[in-house]
UniProtKB/TrEMBL annotation:
This is Pirin. The lineage of its organism: Bacteria, Bacillati, Actinomycetota, Actinomycetes, Mycobacteriales. PANTHER family: PIRIN, PIRIN-RELATED. Residues 215-317 form the Pirin C-terminal domain. InterPro entries: Pirin, Pirin_C_dom, Pirin_N_dom, RmlC-like_jellyroll, RmlC_Cupin_sf. Belongs to the pirin family. Residues 66-141 form the Pirin N-terminal domain. SUPFAM superfamilies: RmlC-like cupins.
Length: 351
């Protein structure tokens, strides 16, 4: 099922999902974690698992690089940004600047790695009397050469604060568009602005026309997405989730496939008897060479070598934690503590 038309191309999703510049790729993780124990690790035990590299496990959940708690212990990044969208479960963040966070369902963490940061992303299993379902998107967004060495910074976009556009369809179904990045112009002409990204982000430049929207359509729903503000902006939609099926710009697209739009313009999305979930990524390509190896994304091979050398020598500022797989206390709620000591919690004034 791969076909082109004057409206765009339907393509099969790989693993990870291929990104159109300025996006490098998107990873969609779904894990059906069991109940946890007092240490927030799987209560069913870990016997027989290839700990340290547990991916694609037939049980329906993975430890990834975790040795006790699932997740990704300390690892480096330089030269790009990660956007982590959490739909289920919890993530504990800690990094080489001394910052930390715990975020949960509906929250988004936006991290501009810039000149370099080490961080851990662990998935504590907080529920002891029930399963711990987990769903996460991690999107890699490139940075231009002028911003690859900016100071690292993360921002928390709390679920309660992220705007959602609701559109009632003629068939009675509702479409919901979660506006994570990029101004959204409703069909009535109203502007819905997202929360601000980090200051060094490519999305902070209005000329980038970066948009990240998470869409959920009921059966018999309809929404017409606004056109790109820049003619050069590339728009891709990914359909995911069991049973998802949508008609995108006149083309049928089911779960496991994407739609790359050809040129600027509005995008009409409709559903029939089935609902649909979609992720939209959009932006103006960064017209520069890309040199990528592992967790580093630069412009030249020499810059990659320099990044590896600096990380080996400094760990991008050291690691001020007693362990590589940092997990916060079970009783800790959702929070973010930034490098300057500023503490924020959802629904509360930062202090």
């Amino acid at each position: 099922m791969e076909a082109s038309s004057d409206r765009g191309q339907v393509f099969r999703l790989g693993q990870p999902w291929q990104g159109a510049p300025p996006f490098l790729f998107a990873n969609w993780h779904v894990d059906h974690y069991p109940a946890g124990n007092e240490d927030m690790t799987p209560a069913t035990g870990l016997d027989g698992r290839p700990l340290g590299s547990d991916f694609g496990h037939p049980s329906g959940w993975n430890m990834y690089h975790g040795q006790s708690v699932p997740g990704f212990p300390a690892h480096p990044h330089r030269g790009f940004e990660t956007i982590t969208i959490l739909s289920g479960g919890y993530v504990d963040h800690a990094d080489s600047t001394g910052a930390a966070a715990r975020f949960g369902p509906g929250d988004v963490q936006w991290l501009t790695a810039g000149r370099g940061i080490s961080h851990s992303e662990m998935f504590p299993l907080l529920e002891t009397d029930a399963d711990n379902p987990f769903e996460l998107f991690q999107i890699w967004l490139n940075l231009p050469a002028a911003s690859k060495m900016v100071e690292p910074e993360f921002r928390m976009l709390w679920n309660e604060d992220i705007p959602v556009v609701r559109v009632a369809g003629p068939g009675g179904g509702e479409a919901r568009v979660k506006v994570i990045a990029g101004r959204y112009l409703t069909e009535q002409g109203d502007a819905v602005d997202p929360l601000a990204p980090p200051v060094g982000s490519w999305a902070a430049d209005p000329a980038s026309d970066v948009a990240v929207w998470l869409l959920e359509l009921d059966p018999h729903a309809r929404v017409e997405l606004p056109a790109q503000s820049a003619d050069q902006a590339q728009r891709v939609l990914y359909v995911y989730g069991d049973g998802s099926h949508a008609t995108v710009a006149g083309r049928g697209v089911e779960a496991g496939f994407g739609f790359a739009q050809a040129g600027p313009g509005t995008t009409l999305i409709e559903t029939g008897a089935s609902g649909a979930k979609l992720l939209l990524l959009q932006g103006v390509p960064i017209d520069e060479p890309v040199a990528q190896h592992g967790p580093f994304v630069m412009n030249t091979r020499d810059e990659l070598i320099e990044a590896y050398d600096e990380y080996q020598r400094t760990r991008f500022g050291g690691w001020p934690w007693g362990r590589d797989d940092v997990v916060h206390p079970r009783t800790e709620g959702r929070f973010a503590r930034h490098t300057d000591g500023r503490l924020e919690r959802p629904g509360a004034t930062a202090r």
